[in-house]
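User: quick one, fold this
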Amino acid sequence: MLAWIGYIHLHLWQEGYSQIPTNGPLFLLDAVGGFILACVLLAWPRPLARLLAAGYTASTLGALIISLTVGLFGFRESISASYVVQSLTVETITVIALIGWTALAASHPQPTTRARHRSLSEAP
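Assistant:
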């Protein structure tokens, strides 16, 4: 999902959003951030990484909502623009999934390596 968000932002940046002052560079930064965080979660699926990814996604979603309602850095997005509805959907699902995944992991803590070895050595 994070890579998908990154792809959407990169595609829109290539399709002309790069020409929008302030927002253009932020679209490229968003694309890079999405790809990097997707890789981080694959390599290090820890609660901190999930929370960082959720924060990134929530801020991206928030920026889109602000841009749709009152405008952001002098640019106002339209709900009928390319990928807006898809972005709203993907980003909302991603935030919910990341927060849910983090909460689920927190409710089922993994035993430490030492405790795991001790319980294995005590097994009959």
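User: anything notable?
Assistant: The mean pLDDT is 90.
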